[in-house]
Amino acid sequence: MAYEPIWGGIIAWYLFLAGLGGGAFVASAYLRLKHPHAVRMRKAGHFIAPTVVIVGLVLLMLDAEAGLHNPLRFALLLSNFGSVMTWGVVFLAGFVIVALIVAGLDLARKDVPKTLEAVGAALAVCVAVYTGALLGVTHTFPLWNSAILPVLFLVSALSAGIASVMLYGCLATPQEFEQVEQMKKGHLALPLIELFLIAALLFITAHNTTAGYDSVMSLLTGSHAALFWAVLLAIGLVLPALAEVITMSKRCGNERQARTKRVVSASAELGVLVGGWTLRYLIIVAALPLVLVG
Question: Do residues 62 and 10 make contact, with C-beta atoms less than 8 angstroms apart?
């Protein structure tokens, strides 16, 4: 009998958008530190962050129909601070509030206090880690129940957040985009770290239990193999990394070459975003539960 996943695409979007928002805010904080001249890119990250997180929360509420029929259930999540979900609500609420304040200050053309941005960045990291911990505490699914998963989701969130800000810079403000070399170098390292973490997660899971082995095989050779190899690994990780190396190593002699370089860079950033969502979708749908024997 085929196993029907308990979650699907909507939850994958929620996990992806929450991580993306956190990553975008961290990217903006990094730009302020290392590239203070990239003002438009930094502000873009500030606007992306609360927007995508709020959209993700709306999707979560649409998926949790019982919560919509009885909103008090959402408030009850704050009653158990031993629960990962309770801490998730705290982190998400705090992050959205701070991110909206920062975006409002940008709109009002006022300086964002460094302390406020630091608090927002810390909450952003907590949100990104929480999206992996939410799955990781589920003991009945070996693919989820791993300490590697929160770290993997954090790295993926940072990569997706940077990609969103870089994509904006590439399309809307190429002058700033060309000058953020430190961020480009950092962004290049993240797909390599993701590859290592994915390999470690799959290796450990495959050697844990039969359910873990079957989950991994469904990704490597089974029904999810095409998405895993072609979309997650090729489009989401390997090709963007190669494109980053090529664009960073080539100097543009004329405007046509510069436009071609920006097209390649934009395609790479889109690939990272596609890969970020695919990672979460595959982790959700490929996970098989332990067989409970009474």
Answer: yes
- What string of DSSP letters covers 6-17? SS-HHHHHHHHH
Which tokens belong to 281? 């979708």
57-93 burial, b at 16+ Cβ within 10 Å, e below that, comes to: bebbeebeeebeeeeeeeeeeeeeeeebeebbbbbbe
**In sequence order, what DSSP letters do the residues of 86-125 get, joined into one string?**
HHHHHHHHHHHHHHHHHHHHHHTT-PPPHHHHHHHHHHHH
Location of structure tokens 């129940």: 145
Q: Can you tell me whether residue 268 is helix, strand or coil?
A: helix
Query: Cα 223 vs. chain centroid, distance in angstroms?
Result: 24
Positive or negative: CA dihedral 230, 5, 91, 67: positive
Query: What's the whole-model pTM score?
Result: 0.92
Model pLDDT for residues 48-103, shown as the tens digit of each residue? 999 999 999 988 877 765 455 555 555 555 556 556 778 888 999 999 999 999 99
| 3-state secondary structure string across 240-265 | HHHHHHHHHHCCCCCHHHHHHHHHHH
> Could you read off the pLDDT of 107-162 as tens digits, one per residue?
999 999 999 999 999 999 999 999 999 888 888 899 999 999 999 999 999 999 99
Number of H helices, E strands in the chain: 13, 0
Angle between helix 255-286 and helix 9-34 axes, rounded to 10 deg: 140
Residue 161: what residue type? G
Q: How many Å apart are CA 188 and CA 242, to the nearest integer?
A: 9
| CA distance linking residue 163 with residue 239, whole number of Å | 14
Evaluate whether 278 touches 232 at the Cβ level (below 8 Å). yes
Distance CA 253, CA 108 (A): 39
